[in-house]
Design goal:
The protein is of the alpha+beta class. The chain has eight helices and eight strands. Helix 4 (65-87) crosses helix 5.
């Protein structure tokens, strides 16, 4: 079945917000999608008819099994396109998201499978997020926040908890991307900021707020 761009955006938003315990509220969806709660309610009723969501009046919704399958497909397409844009067309990682938002709605299955094969079946997108495979399985990377590591420690950047444009621009300015080896020279007790060193660059100070959004694989201790 084909779905509208609006329907797919709702499904993806519910997937992002959904927890295992509580339904996604209409107010949370309204904030996520920047629209009115009344419009949310109308769409949820439509998605319920299409068996994509389980809708609880006055409580919210959660994805059905079919809705989850659709959401994972959208996420798969989005992250594959991000990988293609970064690796093959050399867009910066702070440029790929908005373009992939448009391309993710191209749902031709044969195209996506050929794209996956052409890219060498990547497991993670340029931001370090896992790419669901063709069956919807998604890897859970083993990573920790940079702020959890001690001084004189090296680690490899593997993902971001905050993928806002401001955060991506900050890291771009500091020449930090997925795979960058970072070393914590010092940790300051006063404001919990860190002195960071990356290869080929002088040390610099990073705030705790920024550092706690950088996810890493621990490499070695100096």
């Amino acid at each position: 079945m084909n779905y509208s761009i609006s329907e797919e955006n709702y499904i993806k938003a519910i997937y992002r917000l959904q927890s295992t315990r509580e339904p996604v509220s209409t107010n949370a969806l309204a904030v996520e999608l920047d629209t009115k709660p009344a419009s949310i309610t109308d769409m949820l009723k439509r998605l319920k008819v299409k068996k994509l969501v389980i809708y609880y009046p006055y409580q919210g919704c959660r994805l059905s099994a079919e809705g989850t399958r659709l959401a994972l497909g959208i996420v798969r397409r989005h992250r594959l396109w991000e990988y293609f844009l970064a690796e093959k067309l050399k867009f910066n990682w702070n440029e790929v998201h908005d373009i992939a938002e448009e391309l993710e709605h191209v749902s031709n299955g044969q195209l996506i499978e050929r794209l996956d094969a052409f890219l060498g079946f990547p497991r993670f997108d340029p931001h370090g997020d896992p790419i669901p495979d063709s069956s919807g399985k998604i890897a859970t990377p083993s990573q920790v926040k940079l702020t959890t590591l001690g001084a004189h420690t090296k680690a490899k950047v593997s993902g971001l908890a905050d993928q806002s444009q401001d955060m991506l621009n900050l890291l771009q300015q500091r020449n930090i991307t997925i795979g960058t080896i970072v070393e914590i020279n010092k940790k300051f007790g006063f404001d919990h900021s860190l002195e960071i060193k990356i290869p080929g660059n002088p040390p610099f100070i990073m705030s705790e707020q920024a550092a706690q959004n950088i996810l890493v694989h621990h490499e070695l201790e100096a």
